[in-house]
Amino acid sequence: MSNSLSSNQLQLEENPNELLLEIFQYVDPIDLCSFKGLNKRINCIIQALKVHIVVRCQETDEFSYLSIFTPTQIVRLEIRNYCLPLNLNMMTELRSFTFDCTYLSKEQLDQITKIRLLSLERLSIENVTYDLQTSLLDVISQGEHFPSLKTCQIKSRHRYNLENNYSKSLPSNALRSLAIDTWHWSKLDRLLHQLPNLRRFETNFGESYNSTINYIQPHLLIRHLKITLNDPLHDLEKFLKWTPNLTRLRIRGKIRDNDVLKHFEKMAEFLPMIVPRLQHFDCELYCYTNDNEARELIIRQLHPIFRKIRCLSGRAQNKCYATDIMIYPVDNEYECALFCPVQTGLNEGRPEQ
Predict the structure, then answer these.
(1) Same structural domain for residues 277 and 299?
(2) Where would you find the membrane-spanning parts of this chain (predicted)?
């Protein structure tokens, strides 16, 4: 009976090419090495695949499996480990590219600012060095090297402000979503001017708004804003005037005077006037106060978009008014250290004086 089952068992190669191509799309590129060389038909199918390569920290630096693919087969590339054999200039079909600058050679970093990836739609860069950040942002802003780029995320290696030199506005720039870990007010006008089709913007401002900043032309297409501000009330009111058609907002920061109710009362007053289309509101606002649950209920009633706000308690009187986190983030940068940890057991075993 076992011989009968064996003889009737469907063999892999009996499947049509279309089905084999679909099956191999779900096989890890490393495991595809086992199929390479079986016969001419399997080789042709492997050569027709569009592959996703993820280079992570491994016990060995052996990447010989990459040799079974042509550079144009790679449509998604993620580099989080040293991988010197990769020549980025040849990967002209890339659609998604994620990399950590720490693991790229100088030659590969130079390629980033010179290559033309016409199909690239997603770009994520971590640990951007100071000497690379200006040229990199200029390339992204110009849009000529990555004309199909829709989503971009940039994180710098250290907490310095990223900046760029390019100042022209290109209507053909396709970028829709930009997340950049740090920006500064004086360069905001130039950045928004360069990206006329931007829909989603995420960044952090380390300094407060400066009243000497020149007028900034409102960006009418931005709908989603996720922002960290040094002064969440004053700075937010200024910023929102440049994004009047906003529909989603997430604000993070520290309430300056710790008067939470006053903070949300003012916010409930200017939000409907400045961004009348706002539908979704999230916040993560820190303070040091002895407010109780009654204050939380009052805040929820100030405006319909505040209905999800809840007060999370940290150590001592540290509080966080938030909508999309459930537990107070301990040891955050806004936490006030004006409390003394309770010490127990100090007098245990000591004789009474």
Answers:
(1) yes
(2) none
Q: Rounded to the nearest 5 degrees, what angle is found at the Cα of 16, between the Cα atoms of 12 and 21? A: 80
H or E element at residue 300: helix 293-300
Which of 67, 181, 165 is closest to 126 using CA atoms? 181
Q: Which domain holds residue 41?
A: 13-49
Distance, CA of 116 to CA of 21 (rounded, Å): 29
* Contact present, 138 and 112 (Cβ < 8 Å): no
**How many structural domains are present in the chain?**
2
CATH (domain of 264): 3.80.10.10
Sheet of 200-204, strands arranged across = 51-55, 74-79, 96-100, 122-128, 151-156, 177-180, 200-204, 224-228, 248-254, 280-288, 318-322, 310-313
What tokens does 136 get? Answer: 């990199």
How does pLDDT run across 243-295, given as a tens digit for each residue?
999 999 999 999 988 789 999 999 999 999 999 999 999 999 999 988 777 78
Radius of gyration for the alpha carbons in the chain, expressed in angstroms and rounded: 27
The contacts of residue 191 (CB under 8 Å, 6+ apart) are 141, 164, 183
- Locate 23 and state its tokens: 């099956």
pLDDT in tens, 328-338: 999 899 988 65
Backbone angles phi, psi at 124, to 5 degrees: -130, 125
